[in-house]
Amino acid sequence: MNRITLALGVALAALVVAAPVAARGSAATATTVTVTMKEFRFVLSKKTVPHGTVTFKLVNKGKLKHDFKISGKKSKLISPGKSGKLIVTLKKGKLAYVCTVDAHAAAGMKGKLTVT
Ligand SMILES: [Cu+2]
Q1: 23 CA distance to ligand 1 middle (Å)
Q2: How far apart are the first and last CA of the chain?
Q3: Which residues place a Cβ less than 5 A from the ion ligand 1?
Q4: Which domain, by its residues, includes 41?
Q5: How many A from CA of 61 to the centre of ligand 1?
Q6: Is residue 84 part of a domain?
């Protein structure tokens, strides 16, 4: 009887310890980068991200519509004062990003993100 109670107690304690570790592990793989858009440049909150799923939070602080393209994926047009989101799975490397509106990239709306 005592043995069973002890075993149960140990099993429960293991569960309690394991649960928060698992939750923390999955949260660590989610990467979010805030991308501020303005004429004519991007400001990224991170210049290096781990490979995997990356959420780009796009915030247009400019006066024109802008978009954000990286690794073959393009966001919707973001109006001035609005924000949007682009979720992309990135592989390791140096990835170029651009705004595809008119000649915005040539004017400076481009850069490279390092993916490790
Ligand atoms: Cu633009």
Answers
A1: 38
A2: 53
A3: 66, 99, 101, 104, 109
A4: 29-115
A5: 11
A6: yes
